[in-house]
Amino acid sequence: MFEIFVKLFDVLDDKWRDKIIGVTSDGTASMTGRYEGTITNIQKEANWGFIHVWCGLCQLDIVIQKTVMNLNYHSKNIP
After folding, report:
1. What is the pLDDT of residues 18-41, one digit of tens each?
2. Is residue 26 within 8 Å of residue 18, measured between CB atoms?
3. Fewer beta carbons within 10 angstroms: which end of the chain, N or C?
């Protein structure tokens, strides 16, 4: 994924490394992994400050999924 990103942005704007200031993601390991995550690699390419934001909707989705699972669990255990 990272290699595709770099090739695309090199074509779109060869100075993207000077311009990119941050990204947002869903927080998956393939995106945020400490050593090989796509965002980690983009951050290494960026020439100055860089912000990574975990998508608010993705966080909300995780909370809702866990809540529904808890409700399902508890409703099955009600006599």
Report:
1. 999 988 887 777 777 776 788 888
2. no
3. C
Q: Which two tokens stand for residue 60?
A: 């909300």
Q: C-alpha distances in angstroms, 75 versus 65, 68, 69, 70?
A: 15, 10, 10, 8
**Which distant-in-sequence residues (6+ apart) come within 8 Å of 50 by Cβ?**
20, 21, 22, 42, 43
What pLDDT is attached to residue 7? Answer: 95
Arithmetic mean of pLDDT over the chain? 84
Phi and psi, residue 23, nearest 5°: -145, 165
Q: What is the pTM of this model?
A: 0.61
52 near 23, Cβ under 8 Å?
yes
Cβ atoms within 10 Å, residue 45:
14
